[in-house]
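anyone seen this seq b4? input:
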Amino acid sequence: MSKVVVFDETGAPEVLHIVDEPALEPAAGEVRIRIEAIGLNRLDEMMRAGAYPRPFRLPHARLGCEGAGVVDAIGTGVEGLAPGDPVLVTAVPQMDLNGTCAEYTVVPASTVLPRPADLDATSAAALWVAYSTAYGALVEKSGMRPGDQILITAASSSVGLAAIQIARQIGAVPLAVTRHSAKKEALLAAGAAAAFATDQDDVATATRDHTNGAGADIILDSVMGPGLAKLATAARFGATVTTIGWLDPRPASMPMNAPLTIHRYMSFEHTLDPVVVRRIAAFLDAGLRSGALRPTIDTVFALDDIVEAHRYLEKADQFGKIVVTV
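predicted toks r here
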């Protein structure tokens, strides 16, 4: 049997509950994973709360779009994986059906990668979504180059911290934005070249001051909402603005300081493409080996405390990743 986190209706964290279900056998091309740790993501909160951008099944919906564990069984036709292999589950676009927030899950073998050798399960569970999102948005979509000034909003989130590290690995200059001035020192310690807090700084002015009047080459924005147009004034002439989240659910304002290249990035755009996944994996492996990349863990909860973990996720005040261990 497998403990599985499910919910029958959308709402507050209290709609989540744990049930016991048989561990399914993998079909052709599938693998069964014994989950050791799960990275919580904003998508989990959005689905549970009923704000998920795609239709999903109710009742008895599952959660969890990434995780780390060990291969428990393989279906026919699966090559390169064997029972006992430590792995990452990289993308579960139908997490309402086979999400990772469970003791066991069955997923396509194409969504599984070997776990980097120097990462334990907790750190591995914090890796893929944050770092693949930051890499995909900055490198694949925005074309980040050495020397570029990169303005990163929600910089204390797991994606924001990953973006700081990835920018530094490329040779770009990460400029961190946070809501709270109390986080500025921690962001500088995490590798930001400068940190601006919206409770005391005008971000556009601070960015231009730091860049000798030029402005940011790339803005990586997780917030959107009506503040997007003002944020875009921190960009240089001809810069790129790439949005990767919607922490502010209100309609986004259109930037008017043209010319700008504006991208709306969703990580499944690349994490379901095996060619790009190979590039992401190679980039992350290189960064982990050199020490340039290292997931930041904020808090670890046990699976039995999943409701409390979601309460903490809703506060949106963590520094790094929230992980649930099984």
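The chain has a mean pLDDT of 95. The chain has eleven helices and 16 strands. kinda curious what u guys think
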